[in-house]
Amino acid sequence: MRITIIIIILTILIGCKNRNETNIKSENSAITELTKCNCNNEAITKYHILTNKAEIAICDGDFEKASKNYSLAFKEIKKPFGADVYNAALSNHLSDNFDERNLNLQLLINNSDDLSVLKSIFVNTYINENLWNSFIEKRTTDYDSRLRNEFKSMWERDQLFRPMYDTHDDTIQANRIINMNRILSITDSIGFPSQIELGFKKSLRGQNHDVVLVHTSQRRSSNKNIIDLEPILCKAVNEGRFDPEQAISYLHFQNDKDKGNFEVYSTWQYRHHLLPDSLNNKIWLPNLNKEKYESANRIRKKWNADQLDDIAIKSDFNSKSNIPFIFTSVMTFIENLPADLTLEEALEQYKMTTSDKRPFEKSKMR
After folding, report:
1. Number of domains composing the chain
2. Are residues 147 and 255 in the same domain?
3. What pTM was computed for the model?
4. Residue 288 is part of which domain span?
5. Which of 27, 39, 47, 76 is closest to 236 using CA atoms?
6. Which candidate, 293, 265, 223, 298, places its Cα nearest to that of 37?
7. Tens digits of per-residue pLDDT, 117-138?
8. Could you tell me if 170 and 296 lie in one domain?
């Protein structure tokens, strides 16, 4: 009986492929004129300016200033993003603003269904078990549980049969189209599904259905008939429903050259046990020419995303600090050189690996 049900479901999914692809293309054609995003929602722009100022203050060790900027930012948005609330909680704790810290933690708890990571970070390091339990006692559900469960199921459907592309690619793509159509349907009725309806993920970054956007953007990179995510994400960013850094990342994946330079600006570290700390902890950045650097910053400003200099500063802070702040603009990759290299070999490979990058220099970023 179970096998029969699975076969029926797969038949429906594959049969839906062409119909749903048509629906997405139709939706896409209706918004093709909205090709350039300008984030003109003043409140949301102010929110991202203030949270960026807060993160830079964190990097300067000025947690009081960070706390004040987070407090101002949260007045500009219906529900702040999870990572920002988390950073505010840490900043308030480190500046002895315990009442504000408690409000931040209660908001995180009320918007999460899995508290394991949050508890492991805060309890016995910043707060005691009794205080944590008092938050749990006052816990309410500040999100749509039904919708949250549906979007968790969407993630599961997206992962069904991956990575069996040779045998199940049609079904995988049928699932992606069904999921994308559902996202569009919810967007049309209540707005892009976000932290407002769904609360916060355990990681405090993104949502379960973001995987559908990743795969859609990757498909579009090779097939421009796939829906263009830019207008959808632009509206979501303008409404405070989507993190600008994620939008930049997915539009980078789309690889639409005519749209401009959507630079995610990843940073790298390369390590070997024989190398000095000055090299192991050194931050390396993409070596963009002036034109690409300025182009990326212009686009990022339009999308309320961080400027490239600020990303470098935050990445450098993360490499040196043991305080677990979350900066969504920072994508740092740490690559370990082979352990069996001699010091001379490690130095040579380090030099070769970093030859196409430029080192972070804080003095030039300010």
Report:
1. 3
2. yes
3. 0.86
4. 267-364
5. 39
6. 298
7. 999 999 999 999 999 999 999 9
8. no
